[in-house]
Amino acid sequence: MSSKENYRIELRTAIRQLSDRCLYAASKWAAEQLVGIEQDPAKFTPANTRFQRGSSSIRRRFRTNEITSTPAAGVSYVSTPVMEEDDIVDGDFYLLAKSYFDCREYRRAAHALRDQNGKKSVFLRCYALYLAGEKRKEEEMIELEGPLGKSDVVNGELVSLERELSTLRKNGTIDPFGLYLYGLVLKDKGSKSLARTVLVESVNNYPWNWSAWSELQSLCTTVDILTTLNLNNHWMKDFFLASAYQELRKHNESLAKYEYLQGNFAFSNYIQAQIAKAQYSLREFEQVEAIFEDLLRNDPYRVEDMDMYSNVLYAKECFSALSYLAHRVFITDKYRPESCCIIGNYYSLKGQHEKSVVYFRRALKLNRNYLSAWTLMGHEYVEMKNTPAAVEAYRHAVDINPCDYRAWYGLGQAYEMMSMPFYALHYFKKSVFLQQNDSRLWIAMAKCYETDQLHMIEEAIKCYQRAVNCNDREAIALHQLAKLHFELERSDEAAYYYKKDLERMEAEDREGPNMVETLLFLAQYYRDQKRFEEAEVYCTRLLDYTGPEKETAKSLLRGMRMEQSGGPSMDVEHFPP
């Protein structure tokens, strides 16, 4: 039997088991991977050829080596764990409790199972109590502090659940699903180390519960923690590592893992979306846009991850495409946090920042911990010059995820607006530590160093050099490097960077004040170096302009001609950048 067929069998079984325990998010994830497995061509029929589609073009675009199957040579996976079902069959009471659970009547579900001792029943009872506590916590947060305020409210069921699940684990009567819930409780209580240990036990005994892997990933905040996990080498571990690498900003390693997984899961929408996320972090917007267009063609009612697509359209200022996407998600499901963020981005691009904030706030009412909404709302407050509100929004974002470089960058911007460069620099340093390949962050740091309060020009130069190495798309760093070297009276270094900047402006067919400034400096520099032919080239180009630079160029040309003919040279005041 092929590895792909084994994966199908495992995932079909897992979907049934996860759904039976009301772990619907994990069940949905498993189902998406099931239909993402490349079909055997011999078994294609009109009914099951839905996934022979254009996504293969995206798949090929990101794969360097064709992988025919996993495990590949040299990779050995452990044998698939067998899930032991309960000896005790709970029957009718379990069905009743599951019906209550599906109707979101969590306490009724837990009460219906109060006398049932099977592992499935114990898990569902505890899980229902956990969700009942979460539901009450959300209600109290709104009652006490409002939908966007801070609150110290906690889940009131955590203590009793920890006591019961800890006892079951010590007695050896807990199943992998109970371990998952125990890990979740420990994480909420702040016992992160023990939570990691328990979640590793859960995924080693039952590797198909993606929810358990996701909780484990959230506890792996450094590469060192990730490498110390004692995980079985099941194929689900590859999905986990790919996702964990992405969160730890090891984007190339993440891409390599996902490309490897596409050997069997060639048509997985999930993998395509994750590849798009990695490319987004690398600022490869053209490729990201192509992937999301393909995803929407094949899954037109998809809302998940589409807020990232809207960020790309926003950055590229694609008004019509963003308008179409906003309309599409509004019709599909307007009360999803992703939908609200997409609509908020649309209004922001139109310059309607107050209306944009309304939708970001709506997203946070739907999901208080929705990171993108906090960060984007902070950006809007910056645009509205409401810096206290911006700082508050960004602080919420970093509380949720301290690894979100955008929120740290936003805090830096806010304090920069308040003319507090020391604070701004502190936050810019945090953002650049998390995202070292983003030229915008290095430029922001450089500008802080340039302020009158700091005036650390050498440090600013180092930051601009890093920005150039990070492919400064805004074309700011080269020009600033030239100006700073001129200020420090380093004419040769200034000329080098002005020439580099001129080459870039010519390649991009750009005009403007920077072009004039560059031509003037180079004309004067080569005149001073007695390289009159090169100086004349730049002076001649300046004659095409109509401002004072034209008269300056004429004076330079007259002076050089007189000097070449043996007459006294004319002093022309050097043009300051």
UniProtKB/TrEMBL annotation:
UniProt KW Acetylation keyword: no
Ranges of the TPR repeats in the UniProt entry: 337-370, 371-404
Signal peptide span: none
Residue ranges of the TM segments: none
Residue stretches making up the Cdc23 domain: 7-276
Keywords carried by this UniProt record: Cell cycle, Cell division, Mitosis, Repeat, TPR repeat, Ubl conjugation pathway
Keyword Cell division: yes
GO CC terms in record: anaphase-promoting complex
A biological process from GO: protein ubiquitination
Pfam family, one: ANAPC8
SMART domains: TPR (SM00028)
PANTHER family: CELL DIVISION CYCLE 16,23,27 (PTHR12558), CELL DIVISION CYCLE PROTEIN 23 HOMOLOG (PTHR12558:SF10)
Protein name: Cdc23 domain-containing protein
Organism field: Prunus armeniaca
Upper classification of the organism: Eukaryota, Viridiplantae, Streptophyta, Embryophyta, Tracheophyta
